[in-house]
Amino acid sequence: MQFFDREHLRSIFTKPTNYINTNRGKEYYDNLYKKMEKRLNELKAQQPVKEAEIKFQELLETWELSRRDFLKWVSATTAMLMLPPQFEPLVAQAAEVMNRVPIIWINIQDCAGNTEALLRSASPTVDELILEYLSVEYQEVIMAAAGDQAEENLHKAVKDFDGKYLLFVEGSIPVGMPEAFTIGRHPKTGVEHVKHLAEHAAAVIAVGACACFGGVPAAYPNPTGAVGVMDIVKGKPIVNIPACPANPANITGVVIHYILTGELPELDSLLRPKFAFGYRIHDNCERRAHFDAGEFVEEWGDEGAKNNFCLYKMGCKGPFTFNNCSIVRYNEGTNWPIGVGRGCIGCSEPDFWDKYATERPLADSDIQPPGLHGVEATVDEVGLGILTATAIGIGVHAVASAIAGKKDETKEEQ
Amino acid sequence: MGKHVVVDPITRIEGHLRIEAILDDNNTIVDAYSSSTMWRGIEVIMKGRDPRDVPLLAMRICGVCTGTHYYTSTQTVEHALGVVPPKNARLVRNLIQGSLYIHDHVVHFYHLHALDWVDVVSALKADPAKAAEEARKWASMLKDPITGETIRPWKDGVGEFKAVQDRLTKFVKAGRLGPFANAYWGNKSYKLTPEQNLVAVGHYLDALQIQREMAKLMAIFGGKNPHPQSLVVGGVTCVQDIQNPARLGHFGDILGLSREFIYRAYLPDILMAGTVYAEEALAGIGRGLGNYMAYGDFRMDDNPWYQGKTLFPQGLVLNMDLTKVYDVDQSKITEDVTHSWYEYKGTDKPLHPFEGQTNPKYTGFKPDGTLDPKGKYSWIKSPIYDDHRVEVGPLARMIVGYARGDERIKHYVDWLLKSGNLPAKALFSTVGRTAARAIETALMVDVMKEWLTELAKNVAAGDLSTWTEYDFEKLTKGKELKGYGLTEAPRGALGHWIRIKDGKVENYQAVVPSTWNGAPRDYKNRMGAYEASLIGTTLSNPDQPLEILKTIHSFDPCIACAVHVIDTKGKELGVYKVEPVGGACFI
What we know:
The complex is a heterodimer.
Chain A lengths: L5 H9 L11 H20 L10 H7 L4 H14 L7 H9 L6 E5 L5 H8 L6 H7 L2 E4 L7 H14 L5 E5 L2 E2 L7 E2 L4 E2 H10 L3 E5 H6 L12 E2 L10 E4 L6 H14 L12 H4 L10 H5 L10 H4 L18 H4 L23 H4 L18 H15 L5 H20 L1
Chain B lengths: L3 E4 L9 E7 L5 E8 L5 H5 L7 H6 L6 H16 L5 H27 L14 H13 L17 H16 L20 H29 L8 E2 L2 E2 L2 H4 L2 H32 L1 H5 L9 E3 L2 E3 L10 E3 L2 E3 L15 E4 L5 E2 L15 E2 L21 E4 L8 H11 L2 H13 L10 H31 L11 H5 L3 E10 L2 E10 L2 E8 L1 H6 L10 H6 L11 H9 L33
Helix pairs in contact in B: 4-7, 4-13, 5-6, 5-7, 5-9, 6-7, 7-9, 9-13, 12-13
């Protein structure tokens, strides 16, 4: 198999399943509205996770958050979920019943980047409130308890909320070398830990590139045999929120969607929510006009760089990467990688360390503005360039070798 | 024989750490072992890649001090290639690294460490009016080190503290405390009054908001936080951002807000905790090795390769003797694996990172599920400097700077010690480690203002250069190159080493702060810094090892980076067949 062939690229650019239809007609939305209302009423009838109910409105006041801040958040979240504005009251109600859904968050082969991102997120601005209101029963980086007491919290949460909690997993799982991760007074491996907690969860949410597709540890030659959650958990709903780190707005979006519907959002073939991963970076990039005009940065810090030209020739993988960071951005919209003049490294795609995270474009030459034939023509040229490029180096080699390794192993099993 | 205490997981840190302690009959720790229980293999993954792509990957060694690994790795490759970045790039890197310091230290103190000092439940009993008085008292003991004006408290309204208390009361009444559940509330080693606890809890909550703003500092010139993306070998890419007055202005605004919080909340809280816990500090509880090392960092001029002036000087101080400072020479660094889950082939001597090797040899736990301290018991190696076990971190930076007579560092250290009427001796303790971090944060937020001004002036004068051109092919073709990057992560001395052969990474290693501090025993059976710091500490309740958490947290452990490496030489891993990576030297 050749990863960078023309068909592969064409499929990236034309895969219909990757798009979310933002206007599905009155009947669809009327039915969805009714369904969500029903679900919210069911949740309202349930006991909150905490033993006594905390009124959301009172909480908003003690958090010194104005009604206006909250409504801003509601409207941003509704839009992010690709729902029409008439759904805003439902999203507001969903936030109010979030305390019916307990959360367990575990870290395996991780760097804590996703936890950090969530804590540093200011978009939406009420994340912090939701984090506490939501009842996070276990989260190693922020929880006060440690050691035995931390383990007790986990056991209690699993027992009390069997089949009801959302399990968030951060970090990959070393199946090739289980001893590369142990935890607890009576040490358990990462594989056992994830499988056990997933078995009792309502759904599993893999957060970040590592938990979704193996990420850094799974980059060639994948020394610990690291894999993502979907490779070891079977028979449970799983949603992948990739990127390095995952954008916290997308994490909140998935949770709100779950509360609204009791289901995971519509997913693409890689189990990514379409509302967030339905568009290429390239589609909404602020430098897109320069791509179309054939204006490129040719060297770091050159005249093109000073004028915000397109970064494709400096290795930007925006045309191949599905994510909403060109819309949502980072740190409350402060900036994003392409904003600071560095190309996209494709961090929401599988195997991006071996395929995309280089300073060189997939093809070095022949990037033409689309002209009469549209962008598709350009894509084909990219593909042709790749087939003839000699400088892809480690990426192709790495992927090919990893696959060779896999095949060998299959043979041995037989 | 007393009790064998196991703490796994140590929470409120990045990564996975296990501590075991042996107590005597008085519940005093007589022996301790530190073990890391996770590894990933990042240096193995580095091999064969284009060195220009390495920094992005090296950054993922850690999601907390992410920018530091990025910056260090970039510098390592530049050192090997002999490329010197321009002035604007140096200033932007200082600003990104500085923004990481202030963000990281504030989050560490409030969200990862404070709950070891502050009893949240006790704050419920506080009188909000008295809490407001308390807030005023500690702030008023401090004068601004630049203007000399008395510091105003961050918040001192009775209503403000009442609101914090109401918010807490709601949570506690609701039954399940979420992240606050099942901690050691009520433990005897908590010493703050209810009012003092309420002041600190109020700041804990505000810090959640402030740290989000602080994270934007990195995003302004770095693109995002965590995992910024604007550094490249030879410079930085954010040329648009440095010439945009709105970006510079935004940076300045957040820096101003950060300074307000650091001076008006963080430092008074440190003064309060330092005073209340002064007895422990003076008794040297948590002191540990007493040897401190810093590589030095934050380039103050454009002299390349460790020849120019740095904000934090390099140096080694032994046995707490401030009268002597030794120069640090990276060639004297070695790593030992006597008690680590690795084995050396052909030698049993500690090895320099350039010559080192790492062959995993996992021996697991004893049958009763505890560590085997006589054998191997951690994925962290034991680094040794010139046959000394040393501690690194903010305390080491302040001590080395102080012993060097660095005027800026002396000014800030003396300023806090005098305000609290504490002798320098108090620094050699758990409390001192925590105080040193706060002093450094104050210094950093002030010096960042200077760098921002320098950057704005340089750009206004017409210098827009952000990258130094180099011919990668020409520099690397058919050649073997070596380089290293020595910086100071918020947690301490960080070193990366690279060998490049014919344009590809031949070998890559990192010896990180938590390797120095969190290491197990070495070949002479000498303890690592975490282990040594626990000896002599008495637990008020062995089932609630709060004192262990307090001292371990004072180092700000960040374990993913300490154990990111394996060598899989000749080993078949079940899922993938891995190519041999002979001669490698990984942690």
